[in-house]
Amino acid sequence: MNKVILSGRLVADPETKYFSKDNGEESAVSRYTLAVQRIGKNEEHDSADFVRCVCFGARASFCEKYLNKGMKMLVSGYLHTGSFKDKDGKTVYTTDVYVDEQEFAETKKKENESNYVPGEDLPSN
What we know:
Elements: E1 4-10, E2 15-20, E3 26-37, E4 48-56, H1 57-66, E5 72-85, E6 91-104
Parallel strand pairs: 4-6
Antiparallel strand pairs: 1-3, 1-5, 2-3, 3-4, 5-6
């Protein structure tokens, strides 16, 4: 089984590229990096993993339209490993999450919206 579920924030705006398929149709690929907070015993040191995510087709177009740096996202997909030769001829190994699903993990606050939570100011018994 190869299944990944992540919650994190985009470290930069997604990079989306369009290309033509062999049949002449246009398709898209979008890449972004999520900063995923590590949960551990040592809470004094905040640490995160930076996970590269890749979307194709309609998911990639969605990324280009709606995702921005700092947004908190929920992502599910699968690990995909690969390799390529860099300019010096060395093999570089890659591990990406190929995204099957992505959702917003929080809503934007309006400028005039306060942080008030109903019932928060009630005395406790």
